[in-house]
Design goal:
- The complex is a heterodimer.
- Chain A is of the alpha+beta class.
- Chain A is 35% helix and 10% strand.
- In chain A, strands 2-3 form a two-stranded antiparallel sheet.
- Chain A starts with 6 loop residues before the first helix and ends with a strand.
- The mean pLDDT of chain A is 90.
- Chain B folds into three domains: 287 residues, no CATH class; 112 residues, no CATH class; 59 residues, Arc Repressor Mutant, subunit A, CATH 1.10.10.410.
- Chain B is 40% helix and 20% strand.
- Chain B is built from 15 helices and 14 strands.
- Chain B has an eight-stranded mixed beta sheet. In chain B, strands 4-3-14 form a three-stranded antiparallel beta sheet, with no helix packed on it.
- In chain B, strand 11, helix 3 and strand 12 form a beta-alpha-beta unit.
- The longest helix of chain B is centred in the middle third of the chain and has 20 residues.
- The termini of chain B are far apart.
- The model of chain B has no long low-confidence stretch (mean pLDDT 93).
- Classes of the chains: A alpha+beta, B alpha+beta.
- Chains A and B meet through strand 1, helix 3 and strand 3 of A and strand 2, helix 1, strand 7 and strand 8 of B.
- Strand 1 of chain A pairs parallel with strand 2 of chain B.
């Protein structure tokens, strides 16, 4: 993994805008984090199977059964704006 | 230079479950907005998804129906993006370890059987539905979290018509297997189309253009009928196509560019930490394999072979599965299955339609249809009388043999009786009789009709014809 990060690109993906000062602080912090990863790479993992989870648990499911939902009023309780039962958001332009 | 199209389809299908993928909210179309929602499908902080086992089963069942491999390890991943159709800012999907991989769909096309290979069918969650107003957009989360399966095809499709037939075949299979109702009106099937063109005979793929979010199969066909010539036109003029996403405008009948590769999404997939992997056991898989059904195409071919049915009749029984099952129940032991198919399709289906009833409401036993056909085939009743008998048995449930007996409908094949009727008909119609003698062959049909009328439809028509001819030529 490269320790060079395109900070502006990462910020854009996260939809945050950074001042030049923030960019330099976060940039060096992220570099440190990547440094830890480099350190982890030194561990010998030959013969260790990659896993997406630390717990050796699989097949956790629920039955296909209907449960009560929230009422419309409850669902919209925290909405900054709503109308006709819908959450209102700034107009989406694709 | 001649060009050819290379088409691959990503088909999204809502699975037929009672509840959503990660929570117990109802998987149901058409409810008032935001009434089948809870903290999980609203993406509120601190909630945990728990996978719906039936959705996992239906995905694996699809894999079996599409001849896929079912890997012994599958997991879910987060696909990250910002859009108001997903409140969590990620969609849970299967990225590199899907539930099924590598299969195919066979279907009838251009008078033969075509095959489109399937890359994978994976499981994900549907997203909320957006409505656009003058100044704002509205979001309804009822659809968010509905189990959604994505069937990805290899780029094996070469024309708009082939894409259309593939989609119909895929839909028929999924409906047959009980995987999805595939109700297009309810948005249960949506499709992304990948299409490129290249000089015929070459193997390198052209720039891939994606047409997003098609919600009808005829729309897919129309979009491709527009897009393929458009690309060929650009390339043959020496122009260059770049990888991009387009939108189909059904009203204008054109595709238009939405975004090019420079603005392509970077989804930053990573394993979903809130869900454990799935490792299907032998037992679990065996349980699902018991739900595998005969595929529509196989059923059609079998009906044609086992019962000598013409293709349209077999297709009718494929589309109307209960009617097909009813037919097979009778035809298995019957002497003349073809005639039985005729009665079931042309008469029984029409009667059911007229009376707005179903097979479950029938008053007569299935064997009665076989009995009716036997009565015709043995010459006991004519086809015309059979209609009357059928009408009676449909409304009362009385056995056809009994109806014939009670109403005295048996066909008269007694030569003496028919001779007398023929004499009567000739005497009463001297004109047509003379016409026939003068060489007008068609006049015989008129006289035959008169004999049938005199016999109230019971005379054996073939016999009546023979006798009339003999008498008139004498």
């Amino acid at each position: 993994m490269s320790s060079e990060i395109d900070l502006r690109y990462v910020a854009q993906l996260a939809r945050i805008s950074l001042s030049e000062e923030e960019e330099s602080v976060l940039g060096s912090q992220l570099k440190d984090i990547l440094g830890y990863i480099e350190k982890l790479k030194e561990v010998d993992v030959a013969g260790v199977e990659p896993t997406a989870h630390a717990f050796p648990q699989t097949n956790i499911t629920r039955r296909d059964e209907e449960q009560p939902s929230l009422s419309n009023a409850e669902a919209l309780k925290n909405a900054p704006a709503d109308a006709n039962g819908l959450f209102l958001v700034p107009k989406i332009v694709e | 230079m001649e060009y050819e199209a290379v088409i691959g389809l990503e088909t999204h299908v809502q699975l037929k479950t009672r509840s959503k993928m990660w929570c117990g909210c109802a998987n149901q179309f058409g409810a008032p907005p935001n009434t089948h929602v809870c903290p999980v499908c609203l993406g509120l902080p601190g909630v945990l998804p728990v996978a719906n086992e039936e959705a996992l089963r239906l995905t694996v069942l699809t894999g079996m129906l599409l001849h896929c491999d079912i890997p012994r390890y599958a997991k879910f991943d987060r696909k990250n993006y910002f859009y108001p159709d997903v409140a969590k800012n990620y969609q849970i999907t299967q990225y590199d370890k899907p539930s099924t991989i590598g299969g195919y769909v066979d279907f009838e096309f251009n008078g033969g059987i075509s095959r489109v290979r399937i890359t994978r069918a994976h499981l994900e969650e549907d997203v909320a539905k957006n409505f656009h107003f003058e100044r704002t957009s509205g979001v309804d989360f009822n659809r968010a979290g509905v189990p959604l399966m994505e069937v990805v095809s290899e780029p094996d499709i070469t024309s708009a018509d082939m894409a259309y037939e593939y989609l119909n075949a895929l839909k028929d299979i999924l409906v047959y297997g009980g995987v999805s109702d595939c109700d297009m009106e309810k948005g249960m099937v949506r499709c992304d189309v990948n299409v490129s063109v290249r000089p015929k005979g070459t193997t390198e793929l052209g720039a891939k253009i994606e047409i997003k979010n098609m919600n009808s199969f005829s729309g897919v066909r129309k979009a491709l009928e527009y897009e393929i010539p458009r690309q060929i036109e650009v390339v043959s003029r020496g122009g260059k196509l770049i990888q991009s996403t387009r939108r189909w405008d059904d009203v204008a009948g054109i595709t238009e560019e939405m975004r090019t590769k420079e603005y392509a999404h970077d989804y930053r997939y990573f394993p979903e930490p809130d869900l454990m992997p799935f490792t299907p056991t032998d037992e679990w898989l065996a349980d699902i394999s018991r739900r595998v059904v005969e595929l529509p195409l196989a059923r059609k071919q079998r009906l044609m072979q086992d019962y000598q049915l013409p293709a349209p009749d077999a297709q009718t029984f494929v589309w109307d599965k209960p009617l097909g099952n009813y037919f097979e129940g009778i035809a298995k032991t019957a002497k003349n299955p073809k005639a039985i198919a005729n009665w079931v399709i042309n008469n029984l289906r029409a009667k059911l339609g007229e009376s707005q009833t179903t097979l479950a409401d029938l008053k007569f036993a299935p064997a009665a249809v076989a009995e009716l056909v036997e009565l015709i085939d043995s010459g006991k009743i004519s086809g015309k009388i059979a209609q009357e008998v059928f009408s009676d048995m449909f409304s009362t449930g009385e056995a056809p043999g009994k109806i014939v007996e009670r109403k005295g409908l048996a066909q008269v094949s007694d030569t003496g009786a028919i001779e007398a009727l023929c004499d009567q008909a000739i005497a009463a119609n001297p004109g047509p009789a003379a016409d026939f003698r003068a060489g007008k062959a068609a006049a015989l049909n008129f006289l035959k009709g008169q004999v049938m009328k005199l016999s109230k439809g019971k005379a054996n028509p073939a016999l009546a014809g023979e006798i009339l001819e003999r008498k008139l030529k004498a």
